[in-house]
Amino acid sequence: MRTLYRIDSSIQGDRSVTREITDEFERAWSAALPGGLFDRRDLTATPLSPATWADALAAREAAERTPRQQTAVDLAARLADELLAADVIVIGAPLYNWGPSGHLKCWIDMLWTDPRFAPRTYPLTGKFVVLVVSRGGGASPGAPQEGWDHSVPFLLHTFGGEVFGADVTLIETELTLAEHSPAMPHLREKAVQLRTRSHALAAEAGTALAGLAA
Predict the structure, then answer these.
(1) Three-class SS of residue 5?
(2) Which of 8-12, 49-53, 142-146 has the lowest average pLDDT?
(3) What is the C-alpha separation between 107 and 50, in angstroms, rounded?
């Protein structure tokens, strides 16, 4: 039976666009694959500390690990176990201040410290990753901030064939601040269109990837 693993990293709670879109993916998956296995990690409910990442990193070179280093290593192994147990991974990845969520970045950094995620191991080969990205403004062609985004390429390279090895699908939603920003009323209609499109893509991807397990 195919297993879905869901990662959320938005700090916005009920206002989160990425959670809204990953919910759509999860609903489609569950409808297409009743009884499918499911696990999740909310990185804001159980945040990871950069200090723990530093301990896990230092443990690799330590002749004798401290208790803190061993705890960090054990946590990194658990995070890697969770990811490796899944066939399909959906990741909510909001961009804040033109960068990925600190919660998400720390999770990725922790994975890197596990030997199974070492360079050129391609641990997610044969698995599917759906990246659900949102940004408050726009960085697409023609937008004032066109070319500013370096975060989506980072995520695609990290989870894709060059590094972790997964087959990656990107669902990207721009202009998520248009509804609330007094400077963006002229973009609200387009923002609704983009959000609706992301919902449709998430439902389509959820159904399609669940179908691979049938």
Answers:
(1) strand
(2) 142-146
(3) 9
User: Is the torsion defined by CA of 138, 140, 143, 144 positive or negative?
Assistant: positive
Q: Where are the beta strands (DSSP E) in the chain?
A: 3-8, 37-42, 88-96, 99-100, 128-134, 167-173
Q: In the chain, what are the domains?
A: 3-211 (3.40.50.360)
Q: Identify the CA nearest to 190 among candidates 202, 178, 172.
A: 178
pLDDT per residue over 115-150, tens digit each? Answer: 999 999 999 999 999 999 998 667 777 666 767 788
Under DSSP, is residue 180 helix (H, G, I), strand (E, B) or coil? Answer: coil
Distance, C-alpha 201 to centroid of its chain: 16
If you average pLDDT over residues 173-197, what whole number do you get?
A: 79
Query: pLDDT (tens digit, 9 = 90+) per residue, 76-89?
Result: 999 999 999 999 99
Beta strands in 63-201 (DSSP E): 88-96, 99-100, 128-134, 167-173
Please name the amino acid found at residue 102.
G
From the list 106, 116, 132, 123, the residue with the least C-alpha distance to 159 is 123
Nearest CA to 130 out of 17, 9, 13, 21 is that of 21
DSSP letter assigned to residue 145: T
Distance of CA 68 to the CA centre of its chain: 27
